[in-house]
Amino acid sequence: MTFAHMQAATTPDTRLDRLFRPRSIAVVGASAAPGKLGSVMLDAVNRGSDGSLTIFGINPKGEGDGFHVSLRAATEANGAPIDLAVLCIPALATPDAVREAAKCEVGAAVICSGGFAEAGAVGAALQNQLADIASRSGIRLLGPNTSGFFRPASTTVSFVPTVEHIIPGSVAVVAASGGMNHALSFLLSEHGVGLGLGVGLGNCVDVTAVDVLEHVRRDPSITAVALHVESVGDGRSLLSAVRAVSAVKPIVAIVVGRSDVSAFSESHTGALATSWRTTRALLTEAGAVVVDSEQQLVDALAVLSRTRLPAAASPGVGVVTAQAGPGLMILDELLARDVRVPTLSESVQVRLSTLLPPMTFQANPVDTGRPGATFSAVLSATASDPEVSALAVYALAEPDAIDLADAVSKAGVHADMPVVLGVGGPAEAVSKTAAAAAGIGVPVVSSPTALATGIRALVHDARSRFLRAVDAGTRTATHPPLPVINLPADEATSKDLLDALAITTPRRRACPDRDTAHQALTELSLPVAVKILDAGVLHKTDIGGVHLGIRTPQELDSALDALDAIDSPAYLVETMAEPGVDLFLGVRHDEVFGPIVVAGLGGTAAEAIGDVTIRSGDLTAAGAAAMLDDLQCAPLLDGWRGGPVLNRDEFARVAIALADYLTSHADIGDIEINPLRLTPTGLIALDAVILAAPNRQIALEGESQ
Q1: DSSP class of residue 408?
Q2: Are 254 and 365 found together in one domain?
Q3: Exposed, middle or buried, 99 (CB in 10 Å: 0-12/13-18/19+)?
């Protein structure tokens, strides 16, 4: 599937065209003095123009050096409003310059200088002025604190002089910072991936990643997007934009902040849902291919900018390798990344046996030995297997033995499915193969790992679109409105809510004194658990607030004595559940993304292990049922060594019930079940915590004083 077919439905966008496709540019702060920002920018704009731009330099000292004294003068000389003003002036002078630009009906401005919100209170006040001007006038502002943008071979608004060496192409880079815009763009270009647009957002006083994503979604010249994320302001809008873009063209995202360890939250859910982890998970859910490094981003885009799989639940990959060692590396990496490499059918293997030496492996991966005259036929045979949706082909460059690009072309399979070619060897030989392959729309990467990364991106992109298509229109609330519980809530109250949500909990008694605790012992099935019942205690085990396996009055008295020693105001006595696998499931109001769902391996070690999966609060039944498959512990849920098997639909029902309730109750910050035990008879919530939202918590504390 080529991008010629994919882009047919897109139409140009005019909302940011005066910024990114200007016909006239004025550089405010231009100077004849070498080395000054204004002179460097003016020179860059002139050198980066394709000749269609009208360019003005603005310097209030006069026109003697060929500059206009003001934007008003340049506008009069242009005979029409100028599309783009590039402001290379100090922060303090910037608001007045933007006001003048707005009065002159300039369409957009790039603000290069720093000294705004990142520089303290004074700078923040200046940035607020810019936001107010943009809001009132409609002028679009990129920055401040940005090095600009570029469209190679067309328009350069960047003071980095080497931008002119970036090769033109069809990838858009949308980066949080100007520095990363350039770093990623140079890296892509060095690996033969051309740029159609590179944008450094800076402080986002007006134009945000959401705006640029919407722009590139409608731009038919862009086939794929690199998204660099440092922080997120409006999470829901970002996810909506990613969903819209990834439906028509792939997005590869890299998120900064792996080491973000914000203040410990009271619940496991909050502690495990760091901003980095949440952002990555929700971008993936929205359709982006999320990578771990710049090189992975390059490898993924080398493939996705040129080809894309149709949406599919589990595309199969055929691996053809001319050398066994690299083939093993590719296979290992694909399987580790949850990419299916199916065993080829018997008929295909019979066909391959007539084409290849007898000692080579032919079931998938297909090892050809040194590539020869049958290489094209091997590709055709492998691609003919009904379980194969894409081909990953690796060989060392051996021009005396085979022309790899020509072999792919003669096989003809690239017209029917994505083919990705990995070629090792001297740069000159590889570049010739890459150029020839590019002519037939086949991406080329330079190592076994790069090939596996590109294929993984291809498959995960297809799988994500399939899941979203399955999920479309299936999200409905599962429960009628329920009574609001009183906060703070102890464990008994929290479990009462779970009961109302049809989530199974143990039989229990909330006991205000020892006599009722002893009465409960006679009413419940033994053994029982005896716990402190105090809404202010969230981690009961840590303070000795849980006693298990109680069967006799004497054992109960010992447990109650221990709880009295930690000033337990009441007791919870409940029947113990069967053994099983402990999970945790939590929902919380994330300050950036709204309601989110977090699940993982449960118990007291949840934070230490950190094996979690995260989804948005509007997850569907299909999405909720599949989310636990992300976990490293997922095999434990499928009958590991005779253990219980999780009913994924039951888990989905529980997760959606919690998400629905949280979404409709803004006064609740977190709801957490830990452990949520998987037993032979199903899921049972053994502990539950409900926390007030932060603003509600403050109010409650004030009421108690």
Answers
A1: H
A2: no
A3: middle
CA–CA separation, 453 vs 470, rounded Å? 26
Q: Which of 145, 168, 195 is the last residue of a domain?
A: 145
What are the pLDDT digits (tens) for 106-139? 999 999 999 999 899 999 999 999 999 999 999 9
Place of tokens 């709801």: 671
Based on the domain organization, do 513 and 455 belong to the same domain?
A: no
**DSSP letters of 96-152?**
HHHHHHHHTT--EEEE----SGGG-HHHHHHHHHHHHHHHHH--EEE-SS--EEEET
477 falls within a domain: no
Residues 278 and 295 in one domain: yes
Determine the pLDDT at residue 581: 94
Q: Is residue 488 part of a domain?
A: no
CA distance 435 to 252: 23
Is residue 664 within 8 A of residue 693, CB to CB? The reply is no
Domain check: are 210 and 88 in the same one?
no
Count of domains observed in the chain:
5
* Strand bridging mode 168-175 / 155-158: unpaired
Strands 612-616 and 594-601: antiparallel
Domain of 299 in residue numbering reads as: 148-306
Asked whether the predicted pLDDT for residue 12 surpasses 60, the reply is: no
User: Are 108 and 250 in a shared domain?
Assistant: no
3-state secondary structure of 484: coil
pLDDT score for 705 = 35
Q: Please tell me whether residues 514 and 621 are part of one structural domain.
A: no
- Mean per-residue pLDDT for 575-601? 94
CATH number of the domain enclosing 396: 3.40.50.261
Q: Phi and psi at residue 585, in whole multiples of 5°? A: -140, 125
User: What is the rounded distance in angstroms from the CA atom of residue 34 to the CA atom of residue 13?
Assistant: 37
Question: Residue 447 falls within a domain, yes or no?
Answer: yes
Asked whether 215 and 208 are in contact (CB, 8 A), the reply is: no
How is residue 447 annotated by DSSP?
S
Cα-Cα end-to-end distance for the chain: 66
Query: What tens digit of pLDDT does each residue of 352-385 get?
Result: 999 999 888 999 999 998 788 999 999 999 999 9
What's the CA gap between 117 and 115, in Å, rounded?
7
pLDDT tens-digit readout, 69-82: 999 999 999 999 99
Q: What is residue 645's DSSP assignment?
A: B
Q: Would you say the C-alpha torsion 380, 382, 387, 393 has a positive or negative sign?
A: negative
59-63, 187-191, 364-368, 665-669: which has the minimum mean pLDDT? 59-63
Q: Is the pTM of this model over 0.70?
A: yes
Contact between residue 534 and residue 563 where contact means Cβ atoms under 8 Å apart: no
